Amino acid sequence: MNLLLHICCAPCSIQCIESLRQENINITGFWYNPNIHPRSEYYNRRDTLIEYASKINLPLIIEDEYGLNSFIENVFPELTTRCEYCYQTRLNATASATIKNKFDAFSTTLLISPYQKHEMIAEYAKSIAQAHNATFLYRDFRPLFRDGQNKARQSNLYMQKYCGCIFSEDERYARNGGQSNKTK
Question: For residues 103 and 126, what is the distance between their CA atoms, to the nearest angstrom?
Answer without folding.
Answer: 16
